[in-house]
Amino acid sequence: MISLKTLTCSSALGLLLATGAVAQDAPARPTGLGFEGTAPTAENVPAYIESGATNQRSDACMATVDTNAGVRLLSGFLKVWEPSTLLVDAGVEAEANGDCPAIVKSDWDGIPGSATDGKILDQAVHDHNMDYVVQVTASRSAQQAIGAYLDDRRGKNISMLDGLGPLADAWKNGAHQFTTITQVQPDATSVKYDDHGNNRGLGSVGDEEAETDANEDLGLAVDFINAMSADGSTEPAKRFYKYGRPWRWDSDVFVVPALEPAKSGSAGTDGGFPSGHTAEAWRDGLAMAYLVPERFQEILTRSVEMGDSRIIAGMHSPLDVIGGRMLGTATVVYNLNLADNAELKSTARVQVLDWLYRQTGTETEAELYTAAHAWPLTDDRFADAELNVAYVAPRQSYGFEAVASDAGAKDVVPAGAEVVLETRQPYLTAEQRRVVIKSTLLPAGFPVMDDAEGFGRLDYIRAADGYGAFEGDVTVTMDASLGGFNARDTWRNDIAGAGMLTKAGSGALTLTGDNGFTGGVVVEGGELVAASRSALGAGDVYVAGGTLAVGARGVDIGGDLTVLDDAGLAIRGLAGEAAAVAVEGNLTLLGGTLDITLPESAEGVTLVSASAIEGTFDEVRLNGAAVEVTYSADAITLAAAQ
Q1: What residue ranges define each of the domains in the chain, with the CATH number in brackets?
Q2: What is the pTM of this model?
Q3: What is the mean pLDDT of each run of 10 residues along the chain (642 residues)?
Q4: In terms of Cα–Cα distance, which of 37, 84, 127 is closest to 437?
Q5: N or C: fewer beta carbons within 10 Å in the chain?
Q6: Is there a contact between 83 and 112 (Cβ–Cβ < 8 Å)?
């Protein structure tokens, strides 16, 4: 390590002049925008978390767009399709209730184009909706057909187990789950097979009639998943919108042959919009992701896959699936915010951790996370995060074009939507989670997805990867002593915006995106890891405490870099010939530590480059041992071995 004490006077003077290693004031730290971002709720719109209990059928006071939360949520469909009546009345009747008149069964026969059918209002959207199913069912593979059959006939939660990857067997055993459908039987094209298993498994309370005991393993988890589906039926919306299944609309829709026996013979009560299987996949998926945030995105990718399988099966259209996703999501947000579920969501998570620790031989959330991602892609089809994102992206809006007049809609976040992320991002405040959701919303203007509260634009899979933009300043305060994501997390999104990021507390936060935010970075505590060249955005970087760690790809800093005496810079590997830390502006060092992890033969490697360098590090280590570096006017390099 270089020390002025070992240099001659002339050499020391030269170094002082070259590096400015005299006492100097620290440059001003970035100031950012001076305010934090916000995520407003929609104005003058009934919040689903306050009205979700109205999603009922057979109640005269909950039978219209204005009085049924589930129907209202999906009312964007009324721009595409006008049902024959605007009531929850397909095969449904209800007695008068106070000022609410009685509901009489609709005469809708469920046959597209019949005298009792509704009216297409947006022919282009409807045509794309059906053409998509025709194309998909004509080109599906044999393996896709098998998957679609299994997702149709067996309990939906059994299918959702796939999202747990290496943890699936442990969960299945703890929930005491079983299914009677494990394959496509040879005679399935003529015989309808029903699942006589128990879908989600056994709850914490025994059932004398069913002759089942209380489940002391994952019974509370099963209770929680059941609770997240309360008031979540898709039947009210199906019986309001009265929109036929795709195979009734178009004879070119090729239903999986083994599912022919599963087709309903009662068209007048068999509406396609929204998809019930999809809604259940999202209800169960979000509930399981809450309990096992270590597999958050993988589980929700399975929810997307199950919705998509309904199209592959020929049983539903893209708009059916989008509607199911929206209603399933809104149902979970509603139930997670109920005071009656506050204790259950906490005790269920504790039980899940205890059970999975014992089953996997782990003791901490960090170890469990590792175990949850231990399988290669050949054994865990959700093991690759980038592949998951690529799979999900086109299935969010299914190729529909955004309506230009709606594309500029204000970004709003549903009341209570942030609760879904509280186990996945426990180190953020509730308002910060709302802002994360806002910054990762899907684009506005797509059919059906433009509901007033914003449920149609939610993208929890992307939100789990952190902010998509800093529209205000963001301070992340982590506490490593709490373990799990409090101790270590990664933000993979590309982050835009004019805001500033401050990393405080302990714990480590890794940034991997192609980030363009301009407000700068301040490191006050813990560790901020730059795992891409553009991880730190385009502003100044100020390391006041803790450590700025740089991955093997190195990092480019668009402004100035300042390191104070109580802080550190860590360089962990170096790929390529560029400097590990390339500073476009000035580098100012007021002491601090430079900790390098590189091959021992890396002398002469450029560690840091800058327009100008002032000061030196107090201590420099290579692989844990003191080492000398060479400072010049614009670079710091590893000194050659003596």
Answers
A1: 4-34+469-638 (no CATH), 48-400 (1.20.144.10)
A2: 0.94
A3: 35 42 74 98 97 98 98 99 98 96 97 98 99 99 99 98 99 98 98 98 93 96 99 99 98 98 97 99 99 99 99 99 99 99 98 99 98 98 97 98 83 98 99 99 97 98 99 99 98 99 99 98 99 98 99 97 98 89 98 92 88 98 95 92 52
A4: 37
A5: C
A6: no
